[in-house]
Amino acid sequence: MIRVRVHVSLKKSVFDPQGRTIHEALGGLGYAAVSDVRAGKFFDLAMEGDDAAAAKAQAEEMARRVLSNPVIEGFTVEVL
Q1: Domain 2-79: CATH superfamily, name plus number
Q2: Labelling 71: which of 9, 38, 40, 56 has CA 20 to 30 A away?
Q3: pTM for this model (two decimals)
Protein backbone atom coordinates (compact mmCIF):
# COMPACT_ATOMS: atom_id res chain seq x y z
CA MET A 1 0.00 0.00 0.00
CA ILE A 2 1.34 3.41 -0.99
CA ARG A 3 0.01 6.65 0.42
CA VAL A 4 0.02 9.70 -1.82
CA ARG A 5 -1.03 13.27 -1.02
CA VAL A 6 -2.24 15.65 -3.73
CA HIS A 7 -2.21 19.37 -2.86
CA VAL A 8 -4.46 21.56 -5.02
CA SER A 9 -4.49 25.35 -4.88
CA LEU A 10 -5.46 28.28 -7.04
CA LYS A 11 -2.78 29.56 -9.40
CA LYS A 12 -1.06 32.75 -8.22
CA SER A 13 -2.72 34.70 -11.05
CA VAL A 14 -6.22 33.77 -9.76
CA PHE A 15 -7.82 35.88 -7.04
CA ASP A 16 -8.41 33.83 -3.87
CA PRO A 17 -11.37 35.32 -1.96
CA GLN A 18 -11.29 32.61 0.71
CA GLY A 19 -7.58 33.21 1.32
CA ARG A 20 -8.19 36.96 1.46
CA THR A 21 -10.96 36.54 4.05
CA ILE A 22 -8.76 34.30 6.19
CA HIS A 23 -5.88 36.79 5.90
CA GLU A 24 -8.10 39.65 7.07
CA ALA A 25 -9.44 37.56 9.97
CA LEU A 26 -5.92 36.64 11.09
CA GLY A 27 -4.89 40.30 10.97
CA GLY A 28 -7.93 41.21 13.05
CA LEU A 29 -6.89 38.64 15.63
CA GLY A 30 -3.43 40.20 15.92
CA TYR A 31 -1.44 37.89 13.64
CA ALA A 32 0.25 40.74 11.79
CA ALA A 33 3.20 38.62 10.66
CA VAL A 34 1.01 36.81 8.10
CA SER A 35 1.51 38.64 4.80
CA ASP A 36 -0.63 36.42 2.53
CA VAL A 37 -2.93 33.39 2.67
CA ARG A 38 -3.78 31.05 -0.21
CA ALA A 39 -6.51 28.52 0.53
CA GLY A 40 -6.41 25.06 -1.01
CA LYS A 41 -7.37 21.46 -0.52
CA PHE A 42 -5.61 18.14 -0.32
CA PHE A 43 -6.47 14.55 -1.06
CA ASP A 44 -4.85 11.59 0.70
CA LEU A 45 -4.92 8.53 -1.54
CA ALA A 46 -4.23 4.95 -0.46
CA MET A 47 -3.09 3.09 -3.56
CA GLU A 48 -2.55 -0.62 -4.08
CA GLY A 49 0.89 -1.86 -5.13
CA ASP A 50 4.47 -1.21 -4.16
CA ASP A 51 5.81 0.94 -7.03
CA ALA A 52 6.03 4.48 -5.64
CA ALA A 53 6.95 6.03 -9.00
CA ALA A 54 3.96 4.43 -10.73
CA ALA A 55 1.64 5.51 -7.89
CA LYS A 56 2.91 9.08 -8.13
CA ALA A 57 2.47 9.13 -11.92
CA GLN A 58 -1.08 7.80 -11.61
CA ALA A 59 -1.92 10.34 -8.89
CA GLU A 60 -0.60 13.14 -11.13
CA GLU A 61 -2.87 11.93 -13.92
CA MET A 62 -5.84 11.85 -11.52
CA ALA A 63 -5.00 15.36 -10.33
CA ARG A 64 -4.92 16.66 -13.91
CA ARG A 65 -8.12 14.89 -14.98
CA VAL A 66 -10.35 14.90 -11.88
CA LEU A 67 -8.97 16.47 -8.70
CA SER A 68 -8.11 19.93 -10.04
CA ASN A 69 -9.32 22.45 -12.57
CA PRO A 70 -6.19 23.02 -14.70
CA VAL A 71 -7.48 26.40 -15.91
CA ILE A 72 -7.35 28.00 -12.45
CA GLU A 73 -5.59 25.48 -10.17
CA GLY A 74 -2.18 23.93 -9.83
CA PHE A 75 -1.21 20.85 -7.86
CA THR A 76 1.67 18.96 -6.34
CA VAL A 77 1.88 15.24 -5.65
CA GLU A 78 3.85 13.78 -2.75
CA VAL A 79 4.45 10.13 -1.92
CA LEU A 80 4.14 9.81 1.87
Answers
A1: Phosphoribosylformylglycinamidine synthase subunit PurS (3.30.1280.10)
A2: 56
A3: 0.84
